[in-house]
Amino acid sequence: KHFQLVIYCPITYSDAKHFIQIFERYFQKLHEHQLFDQIREQMHTWFNDDQEEKQWYEQIKERLQKTIDQAFPDTKNFFAKTSSRSAKDTCIFKEDFLQIYRSELSKFPDTLQENSRITALLTAAFLSLCVTSASDVLSMFIISERIYQDMLLATEAQNTTDSLFKENIILRPFVPIDVDMEFRDNILEKILSFFNDIVRIKLNQYKPNSYVIDFALRKGDDESVNSMNVWVIELNPFMETTDGALFSWQHERDVLEGQANENKDKTLFRITERVRPGSWTMLPISIRQWIKSESDL
Fold first, then answer.
1. What domain range is 82 assigned to?
2. DSSP 240-272
3. Name one Pfam family in it (predicted).
């Protein structure tokens, strides 16, 4: 059971407005028209056209890098997000994404199988979230639709005074986690034990006390569940805006809220037992087009 050092670097109201303005000026139309190659080309050169925005970029980069150097003198790899979400929609724009994807796909005996490609894609996307510097973080945030949307909401809902604006860039050491694992032991008991012994106590300090929590298991010294470490990835609101995963907010709200008579005193645990047909169609069109173009691998 692990605890991580988490560092906060404040995003001021004016910072948030810069994120919004830059995205709208340089990247919004490229996203709308799915001009992904142009996004890759401009993500490192956009500030050449605007000295004011370049000055802001250099200032926030220096502030963020100083925070990183002071907080993590011995750590080179980080995960970064804002107070709301990460910029995981920008993974495919990283320069080494294709190389990582090819490397992961080559580990499968059948590289043309849909599930092999999706697993390799998820692994590449996860590894691409690893950043090493302030410039890495900012280059992802600036081109991210998710960050743009979150900054819009934050600036509309919060106090415009920089000292009262409550958004942060959140940094923590990057921990590799398998996106596809096979279990032969009782992982439910492992997760419940971690939740009851560690997490519940901390959550009781805050209100509201209803959350959707993302857990992850990481392999330990051997393949047994007992040796695995449990991690909390993040907490999300207990609302329909949070994905229900293998549960349906629309059809199983009583189950999710613990009101179903047959399940009131039980912890429900669902798994995917086999490859689901049609998974390909659930991927964003940009991903489907990109992987299709790599069909010669």
1. 7-86+129-178
2. TTS--TTS-TTT-HHHHTT--GGGTT-------
3. D123
Q: What is the pLDDT of residues 217-268, one digit of tens each?
A: 887 777 777 778 888 888 888 888 888 888 899 888 888 887 776 666 777 8
Element (H, E) at 292: helix 285-292
Question: What rounded mean pLDDT belongs to the chain?
Answer: 84
211, with CB counted inside 10 A (0-12, 13-18, 19+), is: middle
Residue 287 and residue 90 in contact, taking contact as beta carbons nearer than 8 Å: no
How far is 131 from 122, CA to CA, in rounded Å? 17
Report phi then psi at 173, rounded to 5: -55, 140
The string of pLDDT tens digits covering residues 145-185 is 999 999 999 998 877 776 778 899 999 999 888 887 766 56
Do 136 and 204 reside in the same domain of the chain?
no
* Start-to-end C-alpha separation, the chain: 39
Residues in Cβ contact with 156 at an 8 Å cutoff, skipping those fewer than 6 apart: none
Verify that 199 and 173 share a domain, yes or no: no
